[in-house]
Amino acid sequence: MNAEQALVAASPKPADVRMLTEEVWASFLAEHGPLQVGTDPDFAPDWSASVTVKGEWNGVVALEMSTSGAQQLTRSMLALDSAAELVDGDLVDAIGEMVNMIGGNVKSLVRGPCRLSLPLVTAGRFLHGSAQREVVRLGCTWAREPLAITVHAGRPTPRETR
Amino acid sequence: MHALIIDDSRAMRLILRRIMVELGFGATEAANGQEALDLLQVGLHPDLCLVDWNMPVMDGYDFVTEVRKVREWRDITLMMVTTESEHAQIVRALAAGAHEYVIKPFTADAIRDKLELLGLAQDGAFA
Fold first, then answer.
1. Please, which of A50, A90, B80, B115 could form a disulfide with B121 given CB 3.0 to 4.6 Å?
2. How confident is the model at residue A8 (pLDDT cuts 50, 70, 90)?
3. Are B93 and B62 within 8 A, CB to CB?
4. Are A107 and B83 inside 8 Å of each other by CB?
5. Which ipTM value was assigned to this complex?
């Protein structure tokens, strides 16, 4: 098994990430229907939230959403009606907490002790490092809005592969 | 009964507040461990603290450790509510003085069940 294959083997599996993501969604956002997994993830996200896992396994878990999807998620979590005004800070908080829960559970899927970072939320698409390889991508629809969950694993550095 | 909800996410604090109010608790919120410690130091004395682990300024583990140093606060029940699910981390938090541990995502029923175990569930709440 080469280093790339070992990286994939040590990383969380799509079926497991799917299961825990559905569980996170069902726990807090069930009133807008279940998360539909398996739709086309190829959309231009307005928001991305990510958490970094560092330790025996290194990687990044990201959640990408449209503004409309992020607003619905935020209203649902804050129990606000559709007319309630939201500021960017509300969206940042809500989608940051969602990726925190997904990332924390992804961390439990890998071997060895790891640490989870605080969430980082930015406008636009999630940008991963060049040394990271995408090992999971779940395209989803929720409340008629597209979203994507990705897991990127840290590639071995050239020194490690020598 | 009063709960102090400590989480850096406003959304999560709100979710926990809704659950606690339904269970018959009053609730106060803090955005990190230091804010929560400040509230205790000025006289807030909750029956229960719901404590997230990963927070800026002061994390939940350090908060639990600090609370357990103070004799007057020994009757406060500390329950971690966090995404930290590694066995070693759970053991560490319990050894530091946390009484119970709930892993996010959780349901209202899971919180109620833990409160029952701790003897903090109130009669008639959540019927």
1. B115
2. confident
3. no
4. yes
5. 0.87
Q: Report yes or no: B21 at the A interface, CB cutoff 8 Å.
A: no
Say if residue A130's pLDDT is above 80.
Answer: no
Measure the CA–CA gap between A120 and A100, rounded to whole angstroms. Answer: 9
**Closest of B20, B110, B36 to residue B76, by C-alpha:** B36
Here the tokens at position B101 are: 């541990």
Residue of A nearest to B81 (CA): A101
> Which residue type sits at B69?
K
The CA distance from B115 to B90, in Å, is: 18
State which H helix or E strand residue A112 sits in: none
Strands (E), chain A: 36-37, 47-55, 59-65, 114-116, 120-123, 132-142, 145-154
A28–B15 CB contact, under 8 Å: yes
